[in-house]
Structures are given as C-alpha cells and as structure tokens.
Amino acid sequence: MADINFEAPEYYTNRELSWLDFNYRILGEARDKENKLFERLKFLSITASNLDEFYMVRVASLKDMVHAGYKKTDISGMTPQEQLTAINRRVHEFVGLQYSTYNRSLVPMLLQSGLNIISSFKDMNKEQEKFADAYFENEVYPVLTPMAVDSSRPFPLIRNKTLNIAALMKRKNSDGDELEFATVQVPSVLPRFVKLPDNDGKTCLILLEQIIQKNIDKLFLNYDVICSYPYRIMRNADFSIEEEESADLMKEIKKQLKKRQWGEVIRLETEEKIDKRLLKILKKELHIKEEDIFKINGPLDLTFLMKMYGIDGFSKYKDKKYIPQPVPGMNSEEDIFTQISKGDILLHHPYVTFDPVVDFIKQASRDENVLAIKQTLYRVSGNSPIIASLAEAAENGKQVTVLVELKARFDEENNIIWAQKLEKAGCHVIYGLLGLKTHSKITLVVRREEDGIKRYVHLGTGNYNDATAKLYTDMGMFTCNRAIGEDATAVFNMISGYSEPPSWNKLSLAPYWLRDKFLHLIRREIKYAKEGKEAFIVAKMNSLCDRKIIAALYEASAAGVKIDLIVRGICCLRTGIPGVSENITVRSIVGMFLEHSRIFYFHNNGNEEVYMGSADWMPRNLNKRVEILFPVMDEKLKEEVIHILDIQLADNVKAQVMDNEGKYSRLDRRGRKKVCAQEYFCNEAQQRAKEEEKIRNDRIFTPMENSESV
Hints:
Elements: H1 15-31, H2 37-67, H3 80-113, E1 115-118, H4 126-140, E2 147-149, E3 163-171, E4 180-185, E5 193-199, E6 202-207, H5 208-214, E7 223-235, H6 249-259, E8 265-271, H7 276-285, E9 293-296, H8 304-308, H9 336-341, E10 345-349, H10 355-366, E11 370-377, H11 385-395, E12 399-404, H12 412-425, E13 428-430, E14 437-438, E15 442-449, E16 452-460, E17 472-479, H13 482-497, E18 508-510, H14 514-530, E19 536-541, H15 547-559, E20 562-567, E21 584-589, E22 594-595, E23 599-602, E24 609-613, H16 619-623, E25 625-631, H17 635-650, E26 655-658, E27 664-666, H18 677-701
Parallel strand pairs: 1-6, 8-9, 11-12, 12-13, 14-25, 17-22, 19-20, 20-21
Antiparallel strand pairs: 2-4, 3-4, 3-7, 5-6, 7-8, 10-17, 11-15, 15-16, 16-17, 18-25, 19-23, 21-26, 23-24, 24-25, 26-27
Helix pairs in contact: 1-2, 1-3, 2-3, 10-11, 11-12, 14-15, 17-18
C-alpha cells in the first residue's frame, strides 16, 4: 500500500464523461420495453433537458478555459481541450441514439397506441390542413415577428434555447439570383404541439414549427420562400460573480442574468436536411464551429415530450400515479410540536408525504408560543406554501430569518422574487454568503414552553420544494434534541453574523470541516480493517468526484474495508483496479423517482453510525458550499435508514453496476427474486399506512367492555 499513489490519474474517470454515462443510463430507461410507453417518453425528454444544462454550464466552462489558454489537467489527467474533443464525439453518438429511439421505437409504438405524431404538414388530410391554416391565422400569426436580414437590418439576437425557423427568400418578379435570409422565432408562449382533428380513430398531433413552415409565405408576401428549416442554439449560461467587488449582490445577479442571452453560442441544432446555403449563413453569423453543429433527424428539442405526457386518454400507457402516504406514527389531530417532543421523526420522501414539513412552518407561523423561525431556502416551488407561511409568521410579529440562496443556478430569478416578497412581509432576508452557496436544508423553530425555551429542528437532504418532494427521493428528520438545537442556532448565527462557535455538538458543516469528518470516518474503518476486524462503509449520494475522498476510499479498499457505493450520477472512482478498488462496488439507480438522498453508513466495529445530509462527495460541496451533515441517533430510526440502504443494494431491476472498465450494466436476475427498491418502498409505505389506519379504526369501533351493564 505504501507504494501505491492513490491519486494517480489512471485511477480516475473524467467527470464530464461520467456525467454522459449517467445520461446514457436515463436514455436506457427510454429504450427499455419493460417501461410503459409514456414513461419512456418522459425519460427521453429528461435526457434532452439534461443535455441542454450540461452544455450551458459544463461545456461552456470548458470552452472558457480553452479560450483562456488553461491547460491544467483534471482528476483523470485530461486537459480542457481533450475533454471537449471527447465530449463532442460522445454527444454526437448520444444524439444519434436519442433520435433512433424516438424514430424507430417510440413513434411507431405511439401510432399503434392511437397517437399519431404527424412528422410533416404534407401528411395532413384536407380537414386537418384546413384546421392548421385556421389555427395559424387566428392563434399564431398575430404573435410572430419575422426578421429579415439585409444592409439596414443586422442579424438579430437569437435567444438561448429558443426554437427558430430560418428561411431563404427571393423577391418576387426579380430577375437576379440573389437570395435573402430571414428568421422567425417559434413562440414559446404557445403550445409546442397542436391537436388536429382525429383521423381513423387516432389522436393526431403536429408540432407548431411545422404549422409555421406551412404558412411561412404569409409572413413575407413580396417574396418567394425558397426553403425554410428550424434551428436552435445553446449559449454559454455559466456566469461568475465578483462578489467581493459587488456592493449589491441582487443587482449584480440581475445584471448577469441579462448577459446570459448574449453568451457565446456553443451548440447549434438544425434539421438534418437543412439547405447548405442556409447553414453557411447560420454558421457565419453565430460564429460556430463545424464540430458544434448537430444535424438532427427529427424534431428539435425533445423536451416537448414531457408536456405530451399529459395528453388525456392514454392512462394505460402510463404508470399509476403514486400518492405519498402518511408518515408512520404522525397524525393530524395532535400538535406537531407535541409529536416531535415524543421522539425524533424520520421522513422518506416521496414515499411519505412532505405535508408535515409544510405544516411545521404553517403551525409555527400561527402558534402564539413560537418566538422565531429560521430557514435556508435553495430551490422552492412556483407557488410555495412555505414562503406564504414564512410571510405570515413575520406579519404575526415573529422573528423570521430566511437565507434565500440567490446563486442557485437557473433559479436565480425565481429566488430574487421570493426574497423580495419575504422582505416586504417583514422577514429578515440574507442573500447567501460571500464566496459560498448555501446548500444546506435546515429549519429552526424557537418556542417558549412551560419548562423554558425549546428548539425544534428539521434537517433534510433535499430542497424545501413541495413540488419536487413528490418526484425526488429524499430523507428528512424532525428533532428537538438539545445538542442539535444548539448547533442549529449556531448555524444561523454564523450565516447571519459570521460568528462561528468554538465547538459543535452533533452537526458537521462544510466548507469548514466536513471533508475532515468524512476522512476521519473512513480512516477509522481502515484502522479496524488493519486490526483484522470487520470494516464496512455504505454511502449513497448523487455524485462522487472529490479526489481526496476517492483516494481515501481506495486506501480503505486496499486495507480490506468492504465499500458499497450507491451513486446516481457522476462517479470518478473506478472499481476493480487490482490492489486499489477490488473491495468497492458502485451502483446507480435510475427509476420513476429521481434518487436525491445522501446517506452515509460506517460500521465502526459494530457501533454503527449513520449520517444524512445535503452534500455530495464533490469539491464544490465540500469547499464552496454551506452544507450540513447530521447523525441519526435514535436506534429505531437508524435501523430504518440501514434497511433503506439494504433494499437499494438488493435492487436488481433498476440498479446498474459499474464494471472494472467503468461501464454500467444491469444485474442478471435469473433465478433471483425481483427487487425494485422504489417499488418496494412504495408498497411498504402503503402497507404501513393501511396497518395504522386499521389500528385507528379498531380504536374507534371496538365495542366498550361490559357494554351490557351500561
């Protein structure tokens, strides 16, 4: 072991290529015939939206590095230019597979199921054609703004992620061969697809851009339209803020948001058969290289498939919607603070409802004994009941402190709106910390009770977002443990006043000493392994790419520590390297819910320790974010969390396991009982809810003893 350099680049996978592997796993769900048809559409849509964000942030960042002449290698030994080259090759392959899935598998199956996506306006019958033309005249035409390009009208700003139609035109009755260019944006305020009159008993849809193309000559009455093709661009949306030089963080972020529309064009999507003359103009005006052009065999921007999922009449092709169940042991009749006082409460979303978290804030806002509410907000829903309760609490005279993280990527604008609303209601709003993102999920309620001041705390692995809580798997915990309450107060004092306490009781924080905490826990397992004792680590997270953590895991594996990792997305660690990672397994679960919880188990020579938190094992989480790791101390709850990990490790339906070449594949379950972790937890939650309902009913309807004597 002493001779092994556990940080050697050959032991690591490039972060960006690992992310692409993750998107391939999602695409695998779109290709999986065991999934229902409309669920497959959703997965294909997710791959498209994921790829958009990947380009706007990760690829954009690499391009910035190349422009700046930055040549330092990453964790796997690749320069920024080498990464871009590898990404470009992989993404072109990926897009080809996306559209092969759409064209060869999904579209024919949709047709069989009674849904006809008309691929060209030429395929419409007379009735449909008449309907489409009327729709254009009445709904679309008034919204459109055609833009010609000539000596007096420069090439217009093409907005990020918008769908547009480019056209080549020739003036009518003109003797010359000169062609002119024009472009029109497909309005995002209108539905992307239009329902046409049914044909042969089938529901018929056509995309909005095809209706516009069919009628494009009506936009240029003095011209003959030679050709028209849709196109779409992606811009660099990765902006950095000089926080130390910014007097007003909110103003600076607002300014940077506007600049996103002017960012460098880093990707151009066009229809596969686009006219070469048209493509040449786009390439020149958008300043884009050939390798960044994607010629698409099908409709651009497959994210429309997510909205198509909502079409009525196809329920048998969709999974039955899961309804989150009541939290075991909790009831709506009893005050939530009384219930928390009886003992810590574990929440496992979306299997159990997020309502107790919303009710926690709501009850606190109206409880006359509550003195203060303090909360961190990273991403919230569009019509957040939590925001409404916080505003109500301030209006009721309570001390309300809210950290709204304005730098939450792509939620900046939304969070600015919420921050301003809270301020108007009288809340004390903090806009994040200088140089850091506050990613922790914590709420503190301070309450006056008969025996003095008591602190109630909610800690979680996911955002305070009631909408995504139905889609993401996350863990949460209510507690009124004195030590955690003291730490929670210290967290908010540090956030609002920069006063870090000399010591902490139970919580571990990034960026201060969370990495050291994890390294200590890993090295403790190494110590036990070297002593010949059982040593075991299980860790579940979204991403793993921190070099020091991975090196420590390699050292632990080499020492004989058994390590099982459940990593949904990026994983730069490689398994099966002789003498380095032979004792490590990595699996990724992609299912109907987005795996989002972070759970960490350490055997500790039989004195098992379980932690949960907001941080992945990534440099950004451990170095540049305020994150919280909290212990699960109640023995019963600890057993429950270990049970959750055990079921995920037993999954042989949605889990894919990494091999020694870094490739993922499904497990061979021949002769083995089928275990799908997400289905298991749904069934388990429903069964527990039935059992509790039966107990309640038995209490209500059981006849009184000795009723004859009454």
